[in-house]
Amino acid sequence: MADAATVLDVKTSIDDVGTGIRKEKRKEIASRLSEVLTGSYILVLKSHLYHWNEVGPLFHPLHKMTEDHYEKIFEACDEIAERIRALGYPASLSAKLFSDGTRGLTPDGATSQHMIEALVADHEALCRSMRKVAAMAEEAEDFVTHDLMTGRLAYHEKVVWMLRATLAD
User: Fold this and answer.
1) Sequence-separated (6 or more) residues with CB below 8 Å from residue 125
2) DSSP symbol at 101
3) What integer pLDDT is reported at residue 93 of this predicted model?
4) Quick one: average pLDDT of 130-151?
5) How far apart are CA 30 and CA 32, in angstroms?
6) Domain 19-93+107-167: what homologous superfamily?
């Protein structure tokens, strides 16, 4: 049986992943995926806060919609983090979470319209990031990451459409 010191001395990266993606490409893709993970996690937090603080005539549908969003995006965070690990790197959140990522997380006095507009902007920004990662992954023949980003893009673009439809006159 291994002693505690040996068991606890675990490396956070796996440098010799031999799945056919060059090491420098894996590192670059993992880094960009960490940015997507951070943006996704910020959206989980923001959607959850808006879920708790929604008031007014759209309370029930927005309460349900934001609950669905934060649950699905939280699940996606796990998929993204696991993909980063499969590429051989530690799953981490970028410093953006602690710098400008907390902006908008205090919904005091925010109307339903302001909350929805903020969510639209965040989902669209995440789509732009995911599109870049998908293109990078395709170029590196990392079809798994490409597929993951394509699926996430489909989800977020649909959310943008639904949120924008909610704002329509």
Assistant:
1) 39
2) G
3) 87
4) 98
5) 5
6) Ferritin, core subunit, four-helix bundle (1.20.1260.10)
